[in-house]
Amino acid sequence: MRSIVIVFVFLIYACVGKQLKKELVSEDETIKDTIVIKDTISQVETVEKEQKEVATNKLIVIDSKSIYISLLTKIPEGKDYYLPVSFKPLVSDIKQEDFYNNYADFTSDLILKNIEYTRYKIEDSVANKYFEISNLNSILVFDENQNILDTLQLKNYEYFSDQIESQVIATYKATEKVKEDKEYVCMTVNDFVKKNNYRFIKDSIYLKATLKENRFKPTDVYAHYKMIKAKDTISFLSFGQYKEETAKHAFYLFRNKKPLDSIINKNLISKIISVPTTLNEENIFVTHQFIPDTDAFWISVIGIDIVANTLTQYERNRVFLR
Fold this sequence. Notes:
This protein is α+β, with helices and mostly antiparallel strands and 322 residues long. The chain is 21% helix and 41% strand. Strands 1-2-7-6-5-8 form a six-stranded antiparallel β-barrel. The chain is globular and about 60 Å long.
């Protein structure tokens, strides 16, 4: 009888050993396709989080007084697209710094970690408390001809950290129509969609004439485009003027080489793209803006009103309706 018990116990341990070995092999097969981490336990946890399906956010925040406009960009080496998300105006600089220094206190699931970047999910309650997320649940995406290409639904709010910077983003899944590795003009769903017939082109000869007529002597010209509107030539010029320790950053709007309005000593613009909407009697554009000799670059929104001869820079990529 005692021999039978011993044999039975031996068989149980043998089965457990085989099962344990099988589980370890399975883990090894999963781990070998990820980054090498010294701590095996941490490595397994990271893999599990990467493979975990993260639930999408459910909260819908609506603001009928503003429209978010930007460029939808594909996440490098991934399938999702993203939009930058800004802090709310009343969130202090100290709180913003605290968020970035202690992001683990404000995030939940690890969505993805690779050599290039790390993505963490931000829960609805946190996003709604600190960030401008109104109307971001659905966005309209446009093609090169300013036609609606697709409507995308929000996937997550995320803390995105790569080798250059960290930022908060709203992410969207690629679709059959939105899948190219490029920037798409997009905006939150609204009733003001209308083709913008402001199509700017480059003209180096016209640029020289504009500089000469206005006695501008820039050190660097970052962007210059023009377009014909009725009988007028509308153009803009973004340039920097640097002398020893002084620097002047300027963005000018012209009609027939005559200045209409300007934004001085703030940001520089390298590119301007028409947005298919007219708001506040202005034609709206998204721009690439930057600070020379730094890694600081971002997408911003401006409005041009040719009738009132004004140039408006909108903060946080939102145009507030008047």
